[in-house]
Inverse folding.
């Protein structure tokens, strides 16, 4: 994995570099002290992860992350900050993690391990256009090969996506957006910010509050919501 650090405090930057170099195989390719320089760098370079402070000169870390989240090739964002109040915004842009200063060694090491595991899982998941409909998921610390056709729905809970078949629950350490990008779009639809549904498993479309829908699925006692922002696309997809 290739990474950059965006941090204007020298001591904090050196401490973070120490943890990354000693507890991971992540390659730090550059360091920055302000957001504008990062945007210039990102226009010509691709990295896998950005360790990002929020209180940086010229362009604060939250605005920088929002800009980067619109890139076609989006790196993981790990916020490293002394400010608790931006955690909700970090969740909105699907940041990988949000770590508060002063650093906790245990917390940093745990984050680095999860980051590398997530990167490895992305490599393992078949990309769009693959001839296989199999996908690798996790259950009880084991990688289970699952047929995509058996997936009923998926739920996002922070940085983990939970995947449900008729009888089993699995997980993958990817955001729901990342996971959705690796599913076949002829069967799966992002019906809500936190949900993906297999449209071939829909049994009933139930009108709900504010002109939205709940989707009752075959064989299982569960209803998946359709958000208002996804309603128009869903209606077109289902010819409603």
């Amino acid at each position: 994995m290739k990474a950059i650090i965006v941090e204007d405090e020298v001591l904090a930057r050196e401490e973070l570099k120490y943890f990354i170099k000693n507890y991971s195989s992540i390659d730090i390719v550059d360091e920055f002290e302000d957001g504008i320089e990062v945007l210039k760098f990102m226009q010509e370079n691709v990295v896998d992860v950005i360790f990002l402070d929020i209180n940086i000169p010229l362009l604060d870390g939250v605005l920088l992350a929002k800009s980067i989240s619109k890139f076609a090739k989006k790196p993981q964002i790990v916020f490293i900050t002394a400010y608790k109040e931006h955690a909700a915004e970090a969740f909105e842009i699907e940041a990988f993690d949000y770590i508060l200063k002063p650093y906790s060694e245990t917390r940093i090491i745990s984050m680095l391990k999860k980051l590398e595991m997530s990167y490895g899982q992305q490599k393992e998941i078949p990309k769009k256009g693959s001839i296989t409909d199999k996908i690798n998921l996790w259950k009880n610390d084991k990688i289970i090969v699952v047929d995509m056709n058996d997936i009923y729905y998926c739920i996002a809970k922070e940085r983990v996506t939970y995947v449900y078949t008729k009888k089993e629950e699995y997980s993958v350490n990817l955001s729901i957006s990342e996971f959705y990008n690796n599913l076949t779009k002829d069967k799966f639809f992002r019906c809500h910010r936190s949900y993906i549904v297999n449209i071939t498993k829909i049994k009933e479309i139930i009108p709900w509050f504010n002109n939205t829908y709940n989707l009752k699925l075959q064989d299982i006692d569960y209803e998946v919501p359709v958000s208002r922002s996804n309603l128009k696309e869903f209606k077109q997809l289902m010819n409603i």
About this structure: Residues 2-124 form a domain with the Rossmann fold fold (CATH 3.40.50.2300).
